[in-house]
Amino acid sequence: MARPVEYITRITDNYAKLGYKPYQWVSNSDTPPWTPLRKPLSHCRLGLVASGGIYASGQVAFHFKDDVSFRAIPTTVRTSDLRTAHFAYDQTDARKDPNVVFPIDTLRGLVKEGVVGSLAENFFTFLGGVYSSRRVAEELAPRITESLLVEKVDVALLVPV
Amino acid sequence: MCHQSVGLIARCAEAAGIATLSMSSALDITKAGKPPRAAFLDYPLGHTTGKPNQPELQREILVQALEGFTSLTVPGSIKMLPFRWDDEDWKRTAMMDGDSRVTRHDTPQYQTEEDRIRAEGENKD
Lengths: 161, 125
Prior knowledge:
The complex is a heterodimer.
Chain A: H1 7-17, E1 45-50, E2 54-56, E3 70-74, E4 82-84, H2 92-96, H3 104-113, E5 118-119, E6 122-126, H4 133-150, E7 155-159
Chain B: H1 2-15, E1 19-24, H2 27-33, E2 37-42, H3 55-66, H4 68-71, E3 77-84, H5 90-93, H6 113-120
Parallel strand pairs in B: 1-2, 2-3
Helix pairs in contact in B: 1-2
């Protein structure tokens, strides 16, 4: 079995070839914050935060220049109304079946099975490919966190692309 | 950078009292960002929660990942999921071309023209 792809090395090489300065990746050596699970998952209300540029038809799509906006997608959405707008990954499979990057049907199924207690009213999506980690940390992260708190979720699943 | 952004959001939400679990298909970026809990799936980018039209597999991946909410007890640890892509050929070329060649439009990039009309109305260029 081959080892996982070293994306940082490859992306750094790409930038160097294009003559850009090396990208400053976020590197945290501290202990991350920690909130213990207070009850079993089967009693938890779950929120989902996904990058991958997912929007529902009728919503404004994402643009590709440091877009730090996000969309609230009702968890009752029809899966066939989901779309993607992104520049950094092959969207072929995501457009065939959004569950590969936005596991909406999977999670609805797990609620029916009783594995997960319930879902938030809205899931949140954004375009993860934002160069400015400062803008993500200072603008996007607090706003999404606030929205998760409004949704009163106990746990959140995050799905990057 | 999606993985990096997700790490930042996870830390922010966790600090606000929400337990988080971050999926990952880019182990090195996730390790560097160190979100509170993560589950690594060794699939090509664009398949962080499974292969298309395989609901049973998608379910199994998510069930095993979500178990991380109880099994991961040390902040910053990553659960390695056992699933593999059909072969490992994709790894040779993944991200070799980078994402930098695409024009960074600053207007919404709709998947279909119909979506644009539904969101913005008929009479816009």
